[in-house]
Sequence to fold (337 residues):
Amino acid sequence: MSDKKLADSIPYIEKASILLLTVGEEAAAAILKQLGPKEVQRIGTAMAVLSDVKREKVAAVFNSFIAEITNTTGFGIGADSYVRNMLTRALGAEKASGIIDRILLGGNTQGLDTLKWMDARAISDVIKQEHPQIQAIVIAYLEGDLSAEVLSYLPENMRLDVVIRVAKLDTVQPDALNELNNILERQFSGGSSAQKRRIGGTKVAADIMTNLDGTIESELMDALTEVDGELAETIQDLMFVFANLMEVDDRGIQTLLREISTDILVVALKGADEELREKIYSNMSSRAADLLRDDLEASGPTKLSDVEAAQKEILSVARRMAEAGEIILGGSGEEML
Fold:
């Protein structure tokens, strides 16, 4: 097998693990400093379980990496600073600020970024006693799965109010950001900012709802429907659920399957209809599809919570790959992730 074919058959997370394990501790540490908490956790876990890597696999990974960086341009490096300076010079600071807020992350997010490294229960403890609007800003800023976990740790009587506020968030005013900075300063350290920034909205609320435990999501959606049926319908239309994988093209499904373990896939497909199963089978080799069918038939009854957890894990990988531009996801609504 050629280096390229071998490299293409290795999941991205395993490639990253092999690279980091072979470049030395100092270089690996410098690379990890540039990643977010979720990426560090995923790669760290993958590195911990990696064993018996053949020399030809290491060579294939390195050759693939060298080929990729050779073809990479400098475009995009420092783009935020360039765009901010360009718009300010062209329009003036006052006019440019509104546009910049729409396309770049405004304000000092140091404290909020610190939250991303914290345990979900710890984050909920930080914001539990604060005003619901502050809770909504924090939850809207975090990534969907972490937001959902934080929300699940909040008292049940708070959740609906927070979700509604997240969905209706748009531009966060300076006083709200200052209040949030003051809260975070009491927990760790950091400065304050008086800039506005765009955060939240119905899409963010939909992502959070998608990541919630099935029971909590159902209860919240029922309650939201009673309070604001139109908002509930909008959020429902934007939610990307497991069945929406039918809308991903064949190449996207094939790319996604390379990142999913067979064990997780078997459990997730226990709750899928036959049409989606056939789509999965059709994007595998005949042998792999037959083995997957056999595994599904041989598997016994599975708890609904386990099926939902497996499906959410696959959806989490799909969203990450969509954000990286590796696949395109279409939700039940018109919007693309």
In short: The chain has a mean pLDDT of 76.
